[in-house]
What does this fold into?
Amino acid sequence: MRLLVAVDPRRSRRELAHLLTELDQTVATTTARNALARLGREKFDLVFLEIPSAGGIAMKLVKEIRRQEPSARVVVLSGSPKVEAAVGALGVSTVDVLPLPVDRQEVGSVLRRIEKGISAHGPLTDSSTGASALVHDLGEGRLEFGIAEGRVQKVLRIDATDAPPNLLARLLVGSYITGQDQVLITARGGLTLAQRKEVHRLVERTVGMSVVGDSPEVVEVQNFVDPGKHELPRLLHRVVQMLRTELELCRSALLGKNGAPLPLLGPLEEEVDRLYLLMVRQLLLSSDNPRVARNIDVESHHFQIGDRLVAKVLEVTGDLVYGIGSELQENLAGFHRVAPPLTHDLASRMERLDHLLTRTMDAFDRLSVVDANATLNAIGEAMSKDADLSQRICRRIPNRTVAVAAQRIAYNLDMALEMMVIVNEVTINRAVEPETVARTGTRVAIGPRRSPSSGNEHRLRP
It folds into this structure.
């Protein structure tokens, strides 16, 4: 294959070019800025791009390469999870992401897969039309997902005439999670500016959803995300890590260590919401598509309701933790004037929630009824001890505004523990599902489960 390495800085470009040459590839190099000009003069099978952060010139370059050379494969090199999400939102199967620093084996694996695809299938085109079977060029770097996986694109038309506020956004969420590919929104007499803004606000916080056409006559929304690209256990893990980060930010601010990062809670919570919608979309699409179910690591359609419930629980927990952070942001100075034992009580409850959240999801991942039961017992004991904490806090904080804020924080912590109860109950219920029992010799194993031996084993295997 002919490869183009468009990587900055020069040293990284040379190192990658040397690695690819050792793998018996024909390599040319250029800067990211000059990549398009080089592609205009020469044909390449594969382009390597380094993208340090989502957005900016590099992401625009990916889109422009897809527009100018739709048959060229692109490998994006990045150390940022946001870049992977942004690239995934393009919904283009011929764009891969590799983490930095570059791993020789991973590069070799990508090259072998691409070489195999080229030899077996050639360019990704529809033989009946000669047009791209996956991507249509809409101009200005915009892409439209076309016929994919042997099916016709699902199109939903919405008449927004006299639609009340927020209904359009909620209908778009419904279209996203139920697997609609394209949504066309119209209204008699034209769409209002408020309606168009409502659509844009929702689209901006949804993974893989883009406005590809916008006018008073019609707003066209496209869902680019590949429903089988992201494994559900990995998405759940990412959400848990973000929730733990939120809790640590709140705890640190309450103890007076550093309140400056509290504004990060907003972006973190938005990302939790985006991942929640992505998980629900994948689960619903996997319900009638075994391939999608396998790709996202859902072992049985019997488990999908429980998986969706767990995803919802984590999303609600994110809302509760964000509420805690909001109370702290508005009243942080007042909390720092409160007697240390009270703030330490609240901080220790945040730390305990972090611990119980980790235990809960670990038991769910390993389908361990023993651990789920132990965690339920620990939650029950904790909630019994904390029953009068809110009242004690209100009585001992003289500033009424701060006292009310502390009471709300305590309430949110209680509700978050209730959310953990639901997940542990899902774990225990799943262990006695007929399909689970059938896989384990028609018996429920009470003994503790071994931890997964590798990062890819997210579920107990029979």
Residues 252 and 258 are 6 Å apart (CA to CA). The domain at 232-439 is CATH 1.20.58.220 (Methane Monooxygenase Hydroxylase; Chain G, domain 1). The first strand starts at residue 2 and ends at 6. The chain has a mean pLDDT of 78.
